[in-house]
Design a protein that fits this description.
By secondary structure, the chain is of the alpha+beta class. The protein has 3 domains: 3-281, Rossmann fold (3-Layer(aba) Sandwich); 317-323 and 331-492, Isoleucyl-tRNA Synthetase, Domain 1; 537-639, OB fold (Dihydrolipoamide Acetyltransferase, E2P) (Beta Barrel). Helix content is 41%, strand content 17%. Strands 19, 20, 21, 22, 25 and 28 form a 6-stranded antiparallel beta sheet that branches. Strands 4-3-8-9 form a 4-stranded antiparallel beta sheet, with no helix packed on it. Strands 6-5-7 form a 3-stranded antiparallel beta sheet, with no helix packed on it. Strand 26 and strand 27 form a beta hairpin. The longest helix is centred in the middle third of the chain and has 31 residues, at 337-367. The termini are far apart. It binds zinc ion (ZN). Zinc ion is lined by residues 100, 102-103, 105, 108, 113, 115-116, 118. Residues 100, 102-103, 105, 108, 113, 115-116, 118 line the site of zinc ion (ZN).
Length: 640
């Protein structure tokens, strides 16, 4: 069974509600509906799409908490946490922003800096501010219940690291290994929050369960709801059975930021509880980026499915196809609208659409849409049908190893096989002399089309249906795939419909423009970093800034971020090491005039003495640009 749902707790929701001036319930209802509809519209179907705000879920989560509490699994700890005096409340991690101690991003959250990816504690932040009042919070004592992940570490080493090293994908295994290597710490399972599942203890009034305690339990409560609706026994899906052979297999399909919760925290909770099965595999994907930048729904750097459907009506499969082709299975990947256009035009239109269309058009042209078996098969037919029969297993094998990109590539190869067969047989040349032969060729080509309809089901469900409709045969299931007789002789085909249309340059430009507009409006809304303390004119006068010219540039070996620049300062030529290599190539900076602080104390960076600093401007998205004269001015000019 396939379960999914929306996690409707957590600080992000209350923050959004506050921003929009509505109640959290309104936010979760809106997004639950939107997400659920988008899934349906894109042909993604679950046994149940549930939500963690339901009573059945709150009750089950509390039951879990009490079970662990009753066994004495939690450590009770008093700690100091940030508290907003104006709002009289403790601040969840996401309610605190400040400067990241690692990369100095001024907009880091209390739990993570989204710029450098470091996970943080609120107290790590420099100059923390409450997002409620904008003021500096105070530290105040509060009590919480911690899950002793350190206690479960030996068990996790055995179950996860020893037991799953040949099962988990390398990206997942690597992350788990590094978490365990750095040593697990007790993690608080409760929070001072006003939205979420109540901690079911008298002394914990006003406290809620940590969202990563309750969210994965959502899979179980969703199953429970489904079983109630269907009259089934939910426990047989989730609890360990007397005969382990009857245990079900649990697989989590998630993204990389949730690996730790599904591989470490949730299994530790299930293990501590004791009655439940553990995940068999967590084939997590890495990140999908969009047009050179991280996806961000809050910054509206995103492709919204409901907007996509308005702008590309009926083109669900085009997006499904592109996303499957670029799925970040083992490393981050990127969606670009140009690539979307190329995949639709060069693959879906030119290969799959073209083949199906030619078979339909030729069958109508020569035989009024009848599929007819003519002269006997030659070795070409035997060979092509033999090859066709291999595809179902190839695809199945890739899918069962979670290699979706590879599975889709197999599918497209089946379409290529059809195209090649038709091109080799050239029925349009043979028809005049040997129509019986053409009957057979189109008969076999028709079987390939019917097979493509079956094989397309997991990837392109709408296209699959369209092909079945065109062929006028009922949708066959996977067991039929690979067979050479899905259409019988004398069968009458339906009308030809176009499967795919080309994506135009204008459509691509429209989408790119939308993203540019979102970026521009974000820049206006970006948090302004506060003014630093006042300095005297003498302080300023100590800075010796000149206009220099970059006369040589190269990457510093074995680093990602560093460029070694040779700068003509007007008084000398010196080496400066600058952390801009992720933004500019050596070629891009050569011959540029720049502002350079020349009396900064020299520093050794990666064994190179850096004499000075190039001044850069950085926007809220972390984009860097040079601060340089508008017109060319003499090298060595003084900036004052
Ligand atoms: Zn950072």
């Amino acid at each position: 069974m396939y379960v999914c749902g929306s996690d409707e707790h957590g600080a992000a929701i209350t923050i959004k509600a506050k921003k929009e001036g509505v109640q959290p319930q309104e936010i979760i209802d809106k997004y639950n509906t939107q997400i659920k509809e988008s899934f349906e519209e894109f042909g993604i179907s679950f046994n149940i799409y549930h939500r963690t705000s339901e009573k059945i879920h709150h009750e089950l989560s509390q039951e879990f908490f009490l079970n662990l509490y009753g066994k004495g699994e939690f450590i009770e700890k008093f700690s100091e946490q940030y508290f907003d005096e104006e709002y009289q409340q403790f601040l969840a991690d996401r309610y605190i922003v400040g400067t990241c101690p690692h990369c100095h991003n001024p907009g880091a959250y209390g739990d993570q800096c989204e710029k450098c990816g470091t996970s943080l504690n609120p107290t790590d932040l420099i100059d923390p501010r409450s997002t409620l009042s904008g003021k500096s919070p105070i530290l105040k004592e509060t009590k919480h219940w911690y899950l002793p992940l350190d206690k479960y570490q030996p068990w996790l080493e055995e179950w996860l690291i020893q037991g799953k090293k040949d099962v988990l994908k390398s990206n997942v295994f690597g992350q788990c290994q590094s978490w365990l290597k750095s040593g697990l710490q007790p993690r608080s399972m409760t929070r001072d929050l006003d939205w979420g599942v109540d901690v079911p203890l008298k002394e914990a009034q006003g406290k809620k369960l940590y969202v990563w305690l309750d969210a994965p339990i959502g899979y179980i409560s969703a199953t429970k709801q489904w079983a109630l609706d269907e009259g089934k026994d939910w426990e047989s899906y989730w609890k360990t059975q007397q005969d382990p052979a009857n245990d079900s297999t649990l697989i989590h399909f998630i993204g990389k930021d949730n690996i730790v919760f599904h591989c470490i925290t949730f299994p530790a909770i299930l293990h501590a509880h004791g009655d439940y099965i553990l995940p068999e595999n967590v084939p997590a994907n890495e990140f999908l980026n969009l047009e050179g930048d991280k996806l961000s729904t809050s910054r509206n750097h995103a492709v919204w499915l409901h907007e996509y459907l308005d702008e590309f009506p009926g083109k669900q499969d085009e997006l499904r196809y592109t996303l499957t082709s670029i799925l970040p299975e083992t490393s981050d990947s990127e969606f670009t609208w140009k690539d979307f256009q190329a995949r639709v035009n060069n693959e879906l239109v030119a290969i799959l659409g073209n083949f199906v269309n030619r078979v339909m058009v030729l069958s109508h042209k020569y035989f009024d849409g009848q599929v007819l078996m003519g002269s006997a098969f030659t070795s070409s037919e035997t060979a092509v049908l033999q090859e066709l029969s291999r595809f179902p297993d190839l695809i199945k094998q890739s899918l069962s190893q979670y290699r979706f990109r590879e599975a889709l590539a197999h599918f497209m190869n089946a379409a290529r096989l059809g195209n090649k067969y038709l091109a080799d047989q050239e029925p349009w040349k043979v028809f005049k002399e040997d129509p019986e032969r053409v009957k057979t060729v189109l008969f076999v080509a028709g079987q390939i089309v019917a097979n493509l309809a079956v094989l397309a089901q997991p990837f392109l469900p709408f296209t699959s249906k369209k092909i079945f409709d065109m062929l006028k045969i009922s949708a066959s299931n996977w067991d039929q795939a690979g067979k050479p007789d899905l259409i019988s002789s004398t069968h009458q085909l339906g009308e030809t419909q176009l499967l795919f249309e080309k994506i135009t340059d204008e459509q691509v430009e429209f989408q790119l423009d939308k993203l540019r507009q979102a970026k521009a409006s974000n820049a206006l809304l970006a948090p302004k970093s506060e003014q630093k303390a006042a300095i005297s004119f003498d302080d300023f006068g100590k800075l010796d800034i000149r206009v220099g010219k970059i006369i040589a540039a190269e990457k510093v070996a074995k680093t990602k971020k560093l460029l070694q620049l040779t700068v003509d300062t007007g008084i000398d030529k010196r080496i400066v090491v600058s952390g801009i290599a992720e933004h500019f190539t050596p070629e891009q900076v050569l011959d540029k005039q720049v502002a350079i602080l020349i009396n900064l104390e020299p520093r050794m960076i990666k064994g190179i003495q850096s004499q000075g600093m190039i001044l850069m401007a950085e926007d809220a998205d972390g984009r860097l640009d040079f601060v340089n004269p508008v017109t060319n001015i003499s090298t060595g000019s003084v900036v004052r």
